[in-house]
């Protein structure tokens, strides 16, 4: 999911990509990445998904993208702030991914996309 956002921003000519975070709680997964685009400034590209245990794999979650938003846009891009795009509807079947959890402890989670095992993501708890 985060990779899709970064792939989109790769097509933007003058940009910066900042901190990427993920919050997972009670069936909701929120990915957020700070993106700066010249001359509009920075905003938080936010993708909200729902998740549930994958019945076919006890070490996986079935994740479905629901919406993408631009949050906290800078003054120059404030017209984008709070716009919500139904990316799940737009992506249709591609909105569903299987997130395999390959390592999990109290501080660290390593996951990969089941369709692309080489696409690994490491998350560290900050609270």
The first-to-last residue Cα distance is 23 Å
Largest sheet: 8 strands, antiparallel
Q: What's the Cα radius of gyration?
A: 15 Å
- Work out the number of β strands: 8
Pick out the low-confidence regions.
Answer: none
Give an account of the 3D structure.
By secondary structure, this protein is mainly β. Helices cover 11% and strands 57% of the residues. It contains two helices and eight strands, in the order αβββββαβββ. Strands 1, 2, 3, 4, 5, 6, 7 and 8 form an eight-stranded antiparallel beta sheet that branches. The protein is globular. It starts with a helix and ends with a strand.
Kindly list the characteristics that best describe this protein.
mainly beta, 8-stranded antiparallel sheet, 8 strands, 11% helix
Question: What's the helix and strand layout?
Answer:
Layout: H1 2-10, E1 15-25, E2 28-37, E3 41-53, E4 60-71, E5 84-85, H2 87-91, E6 96-104, E7 108-113, E8 116-124
Antiparallel strand pairs: 1-2, 2-3, 3-4, 4-5, 4-6, 6-7, 7-8
In short:
The chain is mainly beta and 127 residues long. The chain has helices spanning 2-10, 87-91, and strands spanning 15-25, 28-37, 41-53, 60-71, 84-85, 96-104, 108-113, 116-124.
